[in-house]
Amino acid sequence: PEQAARMKKLQEQEKRQKVEFRKRMEQEVSQFIQATGEPRRRFQPMNKIERSILHDVAEVAGLTSFSFGDDEDSRYVMVFKKEFAPSDEELEAYRRGEEWDPARAEERRRLRELAAQQEEAELETGPAPPGPPNDYKDKYRHLIGSDAAKAAARTMEANKAYGCVPVANKRDTRSIEEAMNEIRAKKRLRQAEDE
What we know:
Blueprint: H1 2-34, E1 40-42, H2 48-60, E2 64-68, E3 76-80, H3 88-95, H4 102-125, H5 136-144, H6 148-152, H7 176-194
Antiparallel strand pairs: 1-3, 2-3
Helix pairs in contact: 1-2
Protein name: SPAG7 protein
GO molecular function, one term: nucleic acid binding
Region (Disordered): 91-139
């Protein structure tokens, strides 16, 4: 009975703390809504329950909220006014733990556009000719000289010992089909003898 009473007291205390925390967050959020020059607000790191309360308060107030941070101790909530809802790029920056800099993002966007335009121009003019920009033999000229490669590249002659054999030189004049049929016939004969 004593333990149950203590548990009940603890639960009530927790509930009270949650209610007080929610009231405090509601006040902070309404201050944030009234602050004109503040498009977003970053809150102190808080635990999971407190974050969920703050997300709920923000949602009720018609704001957008996200949690950032890697480990439980340092996770924090950022609340955004609807008209300043963050872009995917902005969210990515916060997830990486960086500050969001709109000017830098704009610069990055311009560079991306420029790269895309260059790519389009390359597509229209056709690709650059394949091959290395310089002659690799220049690099090794001190080792191989300038006429080494020409001397090494003799004209190729077919070796008569290899390759196609004229029909006249064949000992077996049967076609492949005839040879295969003969092999199959011998096999059948052997099987019939074994039985």
